[in-house]
């Protein structure tokens, strides 16, 4: 887990929204972070995936739907479900973190339920 100060400095933290009186982090930066994390998930490299999943869990647990307009929930859902489907490279820790990320995604962005379902998440979730 990141130290509390780092969590407060997350570009997705509600404390950094304009409504909190703080400068808002540009959507382009948030999109670049999400793109980097999605690429790490798709890399197939266990350590990179675990680090990306850890960061995603934190981002998604702090995020609100308004702050997540800068990325495609469909692409994130596909990447997370892809990790779950890759039985050869997926460790129990990676599976658990992927499931947590999907849960946090659904909590932060309820409209992402359709992309998660279309990404074929049901089977690996039921089998886990």
Radius of gyration over all CA atoms, rounded: 14 Å
What's the count of strands? 0
For the record, give the distance between the C-alpha atoms at the N and C termini, rounded to a whole number.
24 Å
Instruction: Give the structural class.
Output: mainly alpha
Summarize the biggest pleated sheet.
none
* Relative strand content: under 5%
Domain count: the total is 1
Please provide a written account of the structure.
This protein is mainly alpha-helical. It has one domain (4-127). The chain is 62% helix and 0% strand. It is built from seven helices and no strands. The protein has helices at 4-8, 27-42, 46-62, 73-85, 92-108, 113-118, 122-127. Helix 2 (27-42) packs antiparallel against helix 3, helix 3 packs parallel to helix 5 and helix 4 runs antiparallel to helix 5. The longest helix is centred in the middle third of the chain and has 17 residues, at 46-62. Residues 1-23 have low confidence and may be disordered. GO terms for molecular function: ubiquitin protein ligase activity. This is HECT-type E3 ubiquitin transferase. It comes from Lotharella globosa. It catalyses: S-ubiquitinyl-[E2 ubiquitin-conjugating enzyme]-L-cysteine + [acceptor protein]-L-lysine = [E2 ubiquitin-conjugating enzyme]-L-cysteine + N(6)-ubiquitinyl-[acceptor protein]-L-lysine. Its EC number is 2.3.2.26.
């Amino acid at each position: 887990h990141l130290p509390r100060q780092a969590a407060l400095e997350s570009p997705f933290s509600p404390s950094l929204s304009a409504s909190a009186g703080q400068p808002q982090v540009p959507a382009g930066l948030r999109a670049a972070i999400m793109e980097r994390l999605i690429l790490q998930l798709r890399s197939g490299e266990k350590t990179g995936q675990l680090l990306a999943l850890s960061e995603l869990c934190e981002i998604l647990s702090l995020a609100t739907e308004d702050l997540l307009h800068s990325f495609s929930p469909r692409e994130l859902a596909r990447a997370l479900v892809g990790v779950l489907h890759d039985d050869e490279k997926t460790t129990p820790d990676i599976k658990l973190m992927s499931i947590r990320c999907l849960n946090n995604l659904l909590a932060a962005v309820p409209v992402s339920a359709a992309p998660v379902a279309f990404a074929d998440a049901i089977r690996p979730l039921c089998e886990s």
